[in-house]
Amino acid sequence: MAERTIGFVGDAGSNPETKPYWDGCNAGKLMLTRCKDTGKVFTYPRGVSPFTLSANVEWFEAKGTGVLYSYSTMERANPPYTIAYVTLDEGTTMMTGITDTDASKLKIGQKVKVVFKDTETGQKVPFFTPA
Amino acid sequence: MSLKGAGYIVGAWEHPTRKATDKSVAQLHAECAKGALDDAGLTKDDVDGYFCAGDAPGMGPINMVDYMNLNVRHIDSTDIGGSSYQMLVGHALEAIQAGRCNVALITLAGRPRSEGQATGTAVRAGNPAQPDMQFEYPYGPVVANMYAMCAARHMYQYGTTSEQLAWIKVAASHHAQYNEHAMLRNVVTVEDVVNSPMVSTPLHRLDCCVISDGGGALIVTKPEIAKSLKRPLVKVIGVGEHPKGQFAGQVDLTYSGARWSGPAAFEMAGVKPSDIKYASIYDSFTITVLMQLEDLGFCEKGQGGKFVQDGNLISGQGKLPFNTDGGGLCSNHPANRGGITKIIEAVRQARGEAHPKVQVPNANLVLAHGTGGSLGTRHGSSTVILERE
User: Using an 8 Å Cβ cutoff, are B47 and B70 in contact?
Assistant: First the structure.
């Protein structure tokens, strides 16, 4: 079965607010943002802290591991694909997809690790697979 | 000043169509407006406030006020998807109380069925300026899999089963058999639901609502005018609204914004969930109903599965009759927005005008709740509590 084409909207590099995230993906690194006022990590990345609205935000590289928070396999689609939320070891939960595994064997709570996949524009995006 | 009792719903009308290949969206809005005005015993010239949401074509009230040639002094088009209309009832009360209008018209209409929208399953690219868009679109988020992830997590955390979710569809189908306009009138069983094709795990085809054309409208007015009309008096005694998102990564898919909109409405109304005789609960999917019942306080969090099973939502059988028109699951989900039909059936129940087979005896206290947007990412919640005087 053919793999699903992964879509991407817009130009990843055109928004300075999130460019480090997309550059990180292309370099095989999952980059996260942390609010320096509170020390709290957040997703999706922003140039302002969602906890204080200050721009006192820093980028850092995540470990790239976490646990499966929830998932659903879209069986109506051809080919089927699995969307998910993963809670990273850094304590924040992000939307992602599960790849390179038999989705029928997935279990919420299981450990997963990041892999990067090409989208239709060439920009890479993070997916997860069982660790 | 509390909004309790600031307005009455004096007109409520649901378009009978479920497939409107021969009508425009604007025309459907206008036909719904006429239906609700006729129901109230008012005319378009009485309307001085107009309320609509994202389904209204063009720039919302600007284009629709012009199309219907209304002469209004107050407009509001705040859009929170399918739950906009419960919220707009609240906003109409605010406008009435502030003296900004006396007769508020709220309309909803759309024709996703005629237009062939794969509403729940097709991935649609949005504007990359929407701040979450690039971080979600690559993974194929659609309506069905977003709600399905809530169901999967609820099952994991609380032991909820597919069979329990199926009971919600079963109850809706029991009601829909009496609604001549319902799209799905066959009574189904738990086995029918869990054996229907999987759409997005763990939700089956029969866990999903219908896709229909149509619409509805409401007339909300101040007490003096309501009492001068000939319709049963249905007073708005509680309203609540609340958005919920991902909390910057502190995601919890097991509850909705009803956790806040519900208590706000109950507090204003001065009643509690156990007082409610009938509830219209937004039913885009079975899981939507289950989570909202918990969040509104009809049962403890996590106990929704036990609450809905064994026919507890079936009128004449269960403790909490719900969606006696068949709801979105079986009857109608016009414009992919089920909020207004929830209110309309609640008004029918409060007036004693529901189908005799599903009318709840002495339904003097009823609730209508909406969830709009995506339960799995970000959504609006809004609650209305009505009392028949």
Answer: yes
Q: Does B378 touch chain A (CB under 8 A)?
A: no
Q: What is the nearest CA distance from B125 to chain A, expressed in angstroms? A: 7
CB nearest to A74's CB, from B128, B145, B246: B145
Q: How far is CA B85 from CA B104, B202, B338, B381, in A?
A: 12, 29, 9, 10
- Report CA torsion sign: B25, B333, B32, B264: negative
**pLDDT, position B121:** 81
Residue B217 pLDDT greater than 80, yes or no? yes
Indicate the pTM of the whole model: 0.97
The answer to whether the complex's ipTM is over 0.95 is yes
Q: What percent of chain A clears pLDDT 90, i.e. is strictly above it? A: 95
Interface test mutation site (partner B, options A3, A53, A83, max chain B beta carbons within 10 A): A83
Strand partners, A115: A127
- How many helices, marked H, and strands, marked E, lie in chain A? 1, 8
- Closest-CA distance, B22 to chain A, in angstroms, reads 30
Exposed/middle/buried for residue B61 (C-beta within 10 Å: 0-12, 13-18, 19+) = buried
- Domain A13-130 top-level CATH class: mainly beta
Beta B103-110 vs B214-221: how paired, if at all?
Answer: antiparallel
The pLDDT score that the predictor gives to residue A1 is 53
Q: Domains (ranges, CATH) in chain B?
A: 8-115+209-388 (3.40.47.10)
The residue in chain A having the minimum alpha-carbon distance to the alpha carbon of residue B139 is A97
Q: Which helix (H) or strand (E) holds B176?
A: helix B162-176
Q: What would the pLDDT profile of B294-327 be if each residue is shown by its tens digit?
A: 999 999 999 999 999 999 999 999 999 999 999 9
Suggest the residue from B150, B206, B246 to mutate for an interface test with chain A (most A CBs closer than 10 A): B246
Q: Where are the domains of chain A?
A: 13-130
B162 close to A (CB below 8 A): no
3-state DSSP assignment of residue B269 = helix
| Residues B327 and B191 sit within 8 Å (Cβ to Cβ) | no
Please name the residues in contact with B379: beta carbons below 8 A apart, sequence gap of 6 or more: B80, B81, B83, B243, B244, B256, B257, B371, B372, B373
How far does CA B263 lie from the centroid of its chain? 17
**Can you read off the two tokens belonging to residue B360?**
């709840």
Least Cα separation, residue B190 to chain A (angstroms) = 21
* Residues present in chain A in total: 131
The closest alpha carbon to A89, from A113, A119, A70, A57, belongs to A113
Pair B143, B284: CB distance under 8 Å: yes
Q: How far is CA B47 from CA A88, B81, B101, B310, in A?
A: 53, 24, 8, 45
- Going by C-alpha positions, the residue among B14, B336, B346 that lies closest to residue B180 is B14
